[in-house]
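Run log // design_07
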């Protein structure tokens, strides 16, 4: 019945907390392109679907993009798909779907975003290859300043790889890129974490740049500057509020904030249920399709237990109160291979079928 319903649907169409706090005021970016196009978009095998007024009306299925670890062959981009957001099927026989031919030739922390029009999708990733270098200190202080990006239309065929150096010239790294569309400025904010030489690479700050096409970018500005490392920022919108989740080294866990303006003032949301999760990073937040809502809970927060075990589920019915419940492992099944820091994006039935056809 669930599958039939999905086909019918398609056819019918956070301020002070222990260890972290005190975000710097946002700065208005200036358009100063730093990169030129290096590729020609590929011809897709599936027609893109225009973004509807409500994503829940058409994006019934799910795609999970992730990397799998620090060893040889694991710092690439892997795929899994799901019909309900809880039970995942690994694609491409568990082999990488996207690999890197630039920079360090390692890919971590992949993020996918659909364009505002719905006609394109963009893939971003950290340029980092720990399996090759084996040196975390060097990777932060004298590592890659670049972010790797691709443009596509069907999640299968991507344009030529693009290497964009967005971090400041004094940066020692550029980690965990994500992006979000700013309704107010009509631009995408791309954000990531970097250490810089000005303070002897003391801590990770979050920087941002703006773009309308993922080719030309504004100059990098500081977005979050706290008393300790801040990494792995992810954003979702509910109602009039943007909510951001991020890893704070001072708490060894995830903190939560909200704002009505991406470049405005962010307020802390106390979330004992999330803050108490230790040894986690790489938060990934997504909203379930209405058919997949579980016991009234429509939001899934995935937390990456980097010490072992990978991602696990926490659920919430709303983001406003910061209350999440950890889901028992018997109620979901992860992809066959270990899942590390990645992203879940909602996809159409047609996109799901195309992924299964092309990558099985």
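design_07 sequence
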């Amino acid at each position: 019945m669930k599958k039939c319903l999905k086909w019918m649907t398609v056819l019918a169409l956070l301020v002070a907390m222990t260890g972290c706090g005190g975000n710097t005021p946002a700065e208005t970016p200036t358009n100063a392109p730093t990169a030129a196009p290096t590729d020609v978009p590929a011809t897709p095998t599936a027609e893109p679907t225009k973004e509807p007024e409500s994503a829940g009306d058409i994006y019934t299925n799910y795609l999970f993009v992730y990397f799998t670890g620090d060893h040889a062959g694991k710092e690439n981009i892997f795929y899994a798909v799901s019909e309900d957001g809880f039970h995942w099927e690994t694609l491409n026989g568990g082999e990488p779907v996207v690999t890197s031919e630039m920079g360090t030739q390692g890919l971590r922390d992949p993020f996918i975003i659909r364009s505002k029009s719905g006609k394109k999708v963009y893939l971003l990733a950290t340029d980092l290859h720990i399996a090759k270098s084996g040196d975390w200190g060097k990777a932060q202080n004298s590592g890659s300043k670049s972010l790797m990006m691709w443009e596509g239309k069907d999640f299968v065929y991507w344009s030529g790889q693009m290497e964009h150096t967005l971090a400041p010239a004094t940066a020692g790294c550029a980690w965990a890129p994500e992006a979000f569309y700013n309704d107010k400025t009509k631009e995408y904010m791309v954000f990531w974490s970097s250490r810089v030489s000005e303070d002897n690479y003391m801590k990770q700050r979050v920087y941002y740049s703006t773009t309308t096409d993922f080719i030309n970018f504004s100059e990098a500005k500081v977005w979050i500057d706290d008393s300790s490392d801040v990494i792995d920022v992810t954003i979702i919108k509910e109602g009039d509020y943007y909510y951001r989740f991020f890893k704070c080294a001072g708490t060894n866990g995830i903190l939560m904030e909200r704002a009505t303006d991406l470049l405005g003032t962010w307020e802390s949301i106390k979330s004992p249920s999330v803050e108490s999760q230790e040894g986690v990073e790489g938060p990934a937040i997504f909203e379930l399709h209405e058919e997949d809502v579980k016991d009234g809970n429509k939001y899934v927060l995935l937390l990456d237990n980097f010490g072992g075990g990978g991602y696990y589920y926490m659920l919430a019915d709303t983001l406003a109160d910061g209350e999440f419940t950890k889901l028992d492992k018997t109620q979901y099944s992860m992809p066959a291979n270990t899942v590390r820091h990645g992203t879940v994006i909602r996809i159409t039935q047609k996109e799901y079928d195309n992924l299964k056809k092309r990558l099985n």
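The longest strand covers residues 230-238.
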